[in-house]
Amino acid sequence: MRKIILIFGLFLTVGCFSQNKQILYNFTSVPQSLLTNPGGDVKYNWYFGIPLLSGISANVGSSGFSAYDLFADNGVDFNLKLRNVIFSTTRKDRVGINEQIELFNGGFKIVGDQGDSFLSFGMYQEFDFFSYFPKDIAILALDGNRDYLGKVFNLGDLNVKAEMLSVFHLGFHKNINEKLILGARGKIYSSIYNVNSTNNAGYIYTIPSTQGVYEQMIYSDLQLNTSGIAKYDDSDYDSNVVKDITKKAFLGGNLGLGFDAGLTYYPKKNIQLTASVIDFGFIKHSNEVENLTLKGTYRYEGVLPKFSSGGVPEDGYQEFKDAIPLDTLYTNYTTWRPTKFNTSFQFSFEEEVSEDCNCLHYDDETIYKSAVGAQLFVMSAPRTPLVAFTTYYRRKIFNSLQMKATYTIDSYSYKNVGLGLSSMFGPVNFYILADNLLEYKDVSKANSLSFQLGINVILKNNKK
Amino acid sequence: MMKMRAIRRMISVPILILFLSSCASDLDYNQVNDIKLEPVVVSNLAYFDVQANQFVTGGVEQNVIFATPTVAIFNEKYFTDNLRRVELFFEVNNTIRRNYKIDLVFLDKNNQPVHSTNFIVRAYSGVENLVKKTEIFENTSLDLLKRTTNITFTLTMFSGPQLSESSMGSIKLRSGITAYFILE
Questions:
Q1: Residue B177 belongs to a domain with what CATH number?
Q2: CA distance A446 to chain B (A)
Q3: In terms of pLDDT, which residue wins out, A351 or A238?
Q4: Which SS3 state, helix, strand or coil, does residue B177 take?
Q5: Is B119 among the domain residues?
Q6: B42 touches chain A (CB under 8 A)
Q7: Residue A272 has what pLDDT?
Q8: Residues 421 to 460 of A: which have CB under 8 A from any B CB?
Q9: Any idea what DSSP says for residue A233?
Q10: Which CATH number applies to A2-459?
Q11: Does the distance separating the beta carbons of B35 and A419 come in below 8 Å?
């Protein structure tokens, strides 16, 4: 029991959100921006990421409470803090973690007669955890049902998923004309493990009755799907976790397919519109699948002695266990990746008289020193989509230093200020992007933090 | 060269400011070990509603009837392990014009009694006559209760006006359990 609570607690402390990369999106001096829009307007001849260091990103958060609320070393009894956290959150509050590390990444331009094309490819590892706060179940565990006669506890509050996967991708974009760039990226997902329990329903209620002491109903439609972890349950299994993960990462896991699509459009020279759909895809889980179900309905009346001769004595509890059995199944299942939708509008100004002539191109990064814009982010989630709105200011400080400052409003925070810097030292590109900067004054009280950083080698052809 | 230095400063200064000015309040994750959950769960324990005519077979009164159903709940390890206190609540409502005695004997798996209780129930006289009792189990008595696998319910009817197949009324028992857990 303690172990479960501990694990749960650890999840909560690192506790996020969405996978909004509002600073990286459309920040085209960073090649990784192509992963947020395959139709991004990049101007490189070629680039490659320093293996393992080209793209490191993490996004953690919790909408209901912070690590400080639960673990502050302030002399307040932990159980009191736990109570306060449970009763101040709602079933809509969520905890999430997203982490990505690029193993390799690269791309190159293909010069064509009718506009250039750009090919990019790579592999990254990703971990996702997302859970709504199971409020009613937490109250039951904390207080039991005695003081909640008449309350219907919603078992559908249990809504959690976690996945570790690797992604191989190949993207292509083409400058259709001077105003329009279209791009798409195909992805193969190899799931290392998956835990998914997002379609739950059910309730428990207890109300005073004249029949028995209580009328007590349980309806349960709970299912937990797992893939890639069942064999670790078996104590006889001689596990070599590292070897297993490596094998699964390189297409040995449960496979899936997905695609990204995006565009950049310049209706006017200084006005830019972009849009993208990321991770529209699924994973089919058929290897090492194990599903646990707890399904059934029962009205619990207790022991019902049968005095008439020949009557079989009833034991309500045994009947209850038979009515709502815990079953283990081995049924294949399919999960959908969290699909992200981005769109932006940008207005550029402060036209620059170029030192190195680059004026033939609609290259806002070189022609205009500054830009302001707005972005909208929507991500699919088990219940309702997550939405974030960002305004930003982008500025070229030097030829080799770009800055993007963002202000984001979403359901977690209305004071999310972010800053991104991308620099070029010769051909070496270093970028660091972080949001929720105001929270750094005390990170343990932060509800969310995210960052991305990495090193690439980029070759631009200035003479084209 | 000057420019490179300027750029480096431009990048490093904000990063430094960010990390130097950032701080974290002290957190103590070991507090998880202090966790103590004390849920109180209520549920039904037993229920019967025996009609007056069930005491009559072929026109002959049966003065003693009994049943010994199994009770599996106390054998669940996760239920009993963290149990600290149990309250059993009983309520008997007799609407038959006869006096009764109800005996409950809690038996372990060897059929040895671990607990017993009884109710003297007066004959119905036209007014509701509830017999209520609450029993509390802690420590030793709770340990005994946890060994329960069966309960024998015995209804003994005392002499009084003759019952027939068409006699009205019933003797009803409802019983609830309040279980106090401590999980730490």
A1: 2.60.120.1540
A2: 9
A3: A351
A4: strand
A5: yes
A6: yes
A7: 94
A8: 421, 423, 425, 430, 432, 434, 437, 440-445
A9: G
A10: 2.40.160
A11: no
Best CA proximity match to B73, nearest among B151, B15, B132: B151
Half-sphere exposure of A1 (CA within 13 A, CB side): 14
Q: What is the pLDDT of residues A5-42, one digit of tens each?
A: 444 443 433 333 457 889 999 999 899 999 999 999 98
Q: Which string of DSSP letters, residue by residue, matches B33-58?
A: GG--B--EEEEEEEEEEEEGGGGEET
Number of domains in chain B: 1
Domain residue ranges of chain A, discontinuous segments joined by +: 2-459
Residues A421, B14: C-beta atoms closer than 8 Å: yes
* A457–chain B nearest CA distance, Å: 17
Taking residue B172's Cβ as centre, other Cβ atoms within 10 Å add up to 18
Q: What is the DSSP string of A80-146?
A: HHHHHHHHH--TT-EEEEEEEEEEEEEEEEE--TTS-EEEEEEEEEEEEEEEE--HHHHHHHHHBSG
Query: Is residue B85 pLDDT above 70, yes or no?
Result: yes
CA distance B169 to A127: 66
Chain A residues with CB-CB distance to B71 below 8 A: 303, 315, 317
Q: Is residue B141 part of a domain?
A: yes
Contact map slice: A 224-283 vs B, CB within 8 A: none
Q: What is the mean pLDDT of chain A?
A: 85
Band the pLDDT of A355: cuts 50, 70, 90. Answer: low
Residue B7 lies in a domain: no
B83 touching A, CB under 8 A? no
The residue segments making up the domain with residue B82 are 35-181
> For residue A34, what are its two tokens?
């192509």
